[in-house]
Structures are given as structure tokens and as C-alpha cells.
Amino acid sequence: MKQLHLHLLSDSTGETLENIAKAVLAQFEGVEVIKHFWPMVRMESHLDRILTEVAANPGLVLFTLVNPDIRRKLESQCRKMGLPSVAAMDAVTDALSNMLGQAAKARPGRQHVLDSAYFARVDAIQFTIAHDDGIAWENWEEADIILAGVSRTSKTPTSIYLANRGYKVANIPIVPESPPPDLLFNLKHPQVIGLTTNADRLIQVRRNRLLSLNQAPETDYVDMEQVKQEVMYARRMFGDNGWPVIDVTRRSIEETAAAIINLVNEQNAKNQLAVKNGDVPPS
Predict the structure, then answer these.
(1) Among the listed residues 166, 130, 134, the one whose alpha carbon sits nearest the alpha carbon of residue 147
(2) What's the chain's Rg over C-alpha atoms?
(3) Which domains are seen in the chain, by residue range?
(4) Strand, coil or helix: what is 144?
(5) How confident is the model at residue 280 (pLDDT cuts 50, 70, 90)?
(6) Using one digit for the tens of pLDDT, what is the confidence trace for 181-233?
């Protein structure tokens, strides 16, 4: 297995840089990556100490640094050591600068400013955690999205992912023996979205869940006929109420969330057009 030392230098928290590296590394196999993470690099004395470590463990240097003096020194020293150094965000920044006709503001960590969007995201996370698994259904009208689906259709992790994107999400398990509250069928603000999955896949996920809890792996919870009836019951509910449905069988949490966001954006666009045309009064 090929070994690679990867040095990540950031003048802020390094979260953006780490996500970029993670996304790119996922495209390669058979590589042992040793990450050297260097956040908050804002002084040349700090950079000097890092360069000593880079020389001791040569590899690829990936950075997001806005201070021109520190950048020049890093790139110069990397050239002397014969190591590649890559400014992770330069291409996108330059393209935007050209399109917008303005220079980028060279401020470290500007995306982490505690603005209104940050606090809205914190509020969304708190709301979502407090409205998991059908809890506090009386407040569902305050949500942006309601996720409905049978047990083990990834409702909770998808809700949390969406909350981190700023959406207030509640979720409800669809159980034939315990119908959801009538409020679910009369909501005006939130978009209700049904999550479904293949019965075979659902049984596999549920059986793994039972085994992880040291419970009997053969119950009605994983009985094929019972599960099929459960999935059909949920699908009929979704269809009867005209809710959009997403099949999560072969989707990751991120892919499911992306599909949900697309549905919400489409619905918001339709609502705005209706208000503009005077078809409905503005809320």
C-alpha cells in the first residue's frame, strides 16, 4: 500500500480544507494517508515550526491561507524542498472574482462569522433534536420539513443532516397499529416528505439493529409479510395525501438530503410564483 503524508495548513479552523481533502481522497484506493493538520496558521514563526515537520515528513501540502506573506513563504519553501503545494480554494475564488468584478476579502475564517445564518442553524438543530421520532408533534407547524416513514428508513440521521443545513425538521415513524396524529394531514407550512425503502433491504437493516441490541433476530419486526404490509401501508398514506416520496434503498444520507432540499426548493419556487401571480395571499 502506497503511503502519503498530507499536510493541511489553514489560517482558520481548517474545517473547509479537511472536507476538501476528505472528498478528494475518497476517489483513491490502496493509499495509506497520514494527515498532518495545522490550523490557525497566522504567524511566520508558526509556519517555520510547521515547515520543519513538513521537511521531516515530505508529502503533499494543501493550504487555505489568505495572508500573502505567509503564502509566499510556504510556496517558496515547498519549491526548495521539491514538494507540491496547492491552494485549495484559489481556482474558485479567482473565477468568482472575475464573474463578480471584485476582489475577494482576504479575511481568515470569514465563513465562521457568527451571523444570523449561524444562529438560525443552531436553532434548527435544537428544534430537530427536540422533534425526533414523533416527539412534540403539537409544534410541527413550526417545522420546515416533516419526514415520515416506517422504522429504519434513516429518518433521524437525515433530519440531523438537514438541520445542519439550517432546516427545522421533525420526523414521525409510520406504524399501522398506531396511526399518526391528525395534525400531520393538516399542516400548512412544512413540507411533508415520505421515505420508503425496499422490503429486503429494510429487513436486513432491522435484523442488524436487533443483533446490535442483543435482541432476538426473528420477530414480526423482520417478518417479510409484516414488513411488506408495513411498507405498503406507508406508501398508501403518502399517495393519499399527495406527499412526495423518496426511496432511500440505494441512497446515502447525503443523497437523500440533497433530494429533499431539491423538493423543498421546487415547492418554495412554486409558492413564490403563486404569490406573485396573486393566486394565494403572501404569508
Answers:
(1) 134
(2) 25
(3) 2-110 (3.40.50.2300), 116-276 (3.40.50)
(4) coil
(5) low
(6) 999 999 999 999 999 999 999 999 999 989 888 887 778 899 999 999 999 99
